[in-house]
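Reviewer 2 asked us to include a model.

Predict the structure of this chain.
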Amino acid sequence: MNPLHSSIPVSGLLLGLLLAASAAHAQAIGEVDTVFKLFGPDHKIVVEAFDDPKVKGVTCYVSRAKTGGIKGGLGLAEDTSDASIECKQVGAVSFMGDPLRQQEVVFTERTSLVFKKLQVVRMVDKARNTLVYLSYSDRVIEGSPDNSITAVTLPTGLAIPMR
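Predicted model (structure tokens):
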């Protein structure tokens, strides 16, 4: 088969590239083992960091469970919905690109082969000049109420540009 020909339409490929370019990417910070597995990797808690793609100077740290074993090693396991988030101001805050929406997804990571993902949503509390970040897990049919929340209060005088 010619590698230049694919069953994926060009418009779908371009959309995928645009979404990948606009999404935040996590950087692995560390991990700890929680359960020994004789075959495959151990169950773990992983800690990752990602910078808010529209707010320079804000970084979020997410810890989450990662399933090991044979299925986990092959990428076929479904991770639990346990996750925690903490976002911090790590430098001078400035806003990049378009004004912020009241609420938008800033980070997504797959936690199962197809149906489940961890999401981080940024919400704006304009009255308190604060950015609120909510992490939760969703699934196509049934999500989980497990969630974690953190807030970053911005310096006085720095207005949040809103749509």
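The CA atoms of residues 59 and 88 lie 6 Å apart. Confidence is low (pLDDT under 50) at residues 1-22. We have added this to the supplementary material.
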